[in-house]
Amino acid sequence: MHTEITGQAGNETYCVSADAGADSTLTEVSVFRGNDGALVVQIDTNDDTGRIRVNVNDGAVFDGDCESGERFDLR
Asked: Could you tell me which residues are beta bridge partners of residue 27?
């Protein structure tokens, strides 16, 4: 995996691709503070991203494929 970080401190975007020479980004992850002061982690997927699992600390809060709508049991 290759990660490219863009943006400014406190409002970073992490672009993740399969490798440094890849033509497309698998996903973009942005981290910022919302208007209410909450820390926001936003994940933008593409058609070919596939299954993703999101954990907060040790617990899964999402497990599925955003494009197909397929979901998996959280463990």
From this structure: 16, 45
Whether 30 and 13 have beta carbons less than 8 Å apart is answered as yes
Q: Is the dihedral of CA 16, 21, 22, 25 positive or negative?
A: positive
**25: closest CA among 45, 42, 54, 5?**
45
Show the CA angle centred on residue 66, arms to residues 64 and 68, nearest 5°. Answer: 90
How do the pLDDT tens digits run along the chain, 75 residues long? 566 666 666 676 666 666 655 666 777 888 888 899 898 888 888 888 889 999 999 899 999 998 888 999 987
